[in-house]
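Re-run with default settings, no changes from the original entry. Doing this only to confirm the output is reproducible before filing.
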Amino acid sequence: MKDQITLDRIKLIHPVLRDELSEIYDEICSSLTSKSFCRFSYTLRTFAEQDAIYAQGRTKPGPIVTKSKSGQSAHNFGLAVDIVLIHEGKAIWNIKNDYDKDGIPDWMEVVKIFKSYGWEWGGDWKFTDNPHFQKLMGLNIKKCLALHQAGKVDDHGFIKI
């Protein structure tokens, strides 16, 4: 099932990755055959949005949801996607559920597709971030921030890659 919220969020990703992310989403939709579907919960996140969620659990109420301040996340440059599975109308972050009963957890089906396109999965990191995928296009976060600070951006504010 295609999710309009996700289709709209794909339009926010860095232009270099948009077509690829659309292909990834098509594959995900084809692979999940139950009543669950994948939603991209975040793609581009502005610096202000990043600071707001960084404040959660620190200076604002709520749980801590990120370790990254503005300029320290691939989301700030349109180079990352966070996902959530939606099953029977509820958000699911359990990576072991196999709703389509094909012997492979649905979350891991999504991971496999992203990895086949060369995206890095946060679940492979020392501090795991299972919803997170990123593709830095040969850069690192410090280089992305330096390009942004130097004004090496396109007309829409995306760093030039």
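The two ends are 32 Å apart (CA to CA). The longest helix spans residues 15-31.
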